[in-house]
Amino acid sequence: MTVVINMRDGLDERGIRIAARFILGGRLVAFPTETVYGLGADALNENAVRRIFEAKGRPADNPLIVHIAEFDDLKKLAEEVPREAKLLAERFWPGPLTMVLPKRGEVPYVTTGGLDTVAVRMPAHPIALALIKASTPIAAPSANISGKPSPTLAEHVIDDFYGRIECIIDGGETKIGVESTVIDLSSERPTLLRPGGLPLEEIEKVIGEVEIHPAVRGKLVDVARSPGMKYRHYSPSAQVIVVEGKRENVKGKIAELVEVYRSKGLRVGVMATEEYEADEFFHLGKTEEEVARNLFRALRELDKRGVDVIIAEGIEERGLGFAVMNRLRKAAGYRIVWA
Ligand code: AMP
Ligand code: MG
């Protein structure tokens, strides 16, 4: 049975107490953050964390992010907190930044996917913060079946997990819409492991140049440092194709591809920042922020409308565009058409 707690109109203390009791009892609670919905369990309870992997169908070597509500919690999880971590936390927490640090013995290997490092973040969402404060640090990956687009509405979580987890807190639509930026501070040089809701440019203003892990741009490779990067991700049932290139060429290319696929008898959906003729169309908005917010919703919704192919317009890779393009290319399994 799944309890759905409505907090669309704001934080409700009684609801938080109910959800916190589930967490402390080793159960699973899906909750909103400013990035996407998380599927949470007590980060220090091995059996509870194991249930996250089972519910999602997530490979055991794909580590989870531990969510905290105050800076002092970090010292309970990380063996060392380097200067860069303190600077970044001061500037960006609570917010969409995850830092990877050497873990303390108390953090179970189930949570870290077998690694000696732990990924930690403080979410900027009143419901998430209240839930953590009322319980304990919460391990939470995105609340989607492994491989599917991340959830930005409680409806998405209900679609994937109703009847399979104990509790879902409905906090309405998430503000940022893509997951947190993940940065590794456990080795000599700060390294970006995943672009996300906090633009890399902002991080570099605080700690200087950051290395970009090759897997961020590359194909599905076997990586020791962040095993999560090797899995296919964010994919709806429909085949996604990304069209990238000069703006003036992209428009014609998308229109051409729509015709090519339709002539094969396929139902074609388009997601883009301007209008297109297709069987189904989802407007992503104009700014990078709007596109990030609408991205996963567009993938899920076009899928629901039963299209066979989704043609997605690429955007520029600066700011939130870096995270958007990283997710889109993965969703497409790197099927990219250059215009
Ligand atoms: P998700 O919570 O589904 O957005 O996935 C969390 C992601 O954070 C994983 O896929 C990893 O890429 C990254 N991550 C979490 N923990 C670690 C860690 N200890 N070392 C490196 N990357 C990590
Ligand atoms: Mg995920």
What do you see in this structure?
Helices cover 35% and strands 19% of the residues. The protein is α/β, with parallel strands linked by helices and 339 residues long. It has 2 domains: 3-217, Alpha-Beta Complex (DHBP synthase), CATH 3.90.870; 239-338, 3-Layer(aba) Sandwich (Rossmann fold), CATH 3.40.50. An 11-stranded mixed β-sheet has the order 1-8-2-3-7-4-6-5-9-10-11, sandwiched between helices. α8 (200-207) links the parallel β10 and β11. The protein is globular and about 60 Å long. The N and C termini lie far apart (49 Å). Bound molecules: adenosine monophosphate and magnesium ion. Adenosine monophosphate binds at residues 62-65, 100, 112, 115, 117-119, 141-142, 179, 182, 193-194, 225-226, 228-229. The site of adenosine monophosphate has 20 residues, from β6 and β10.
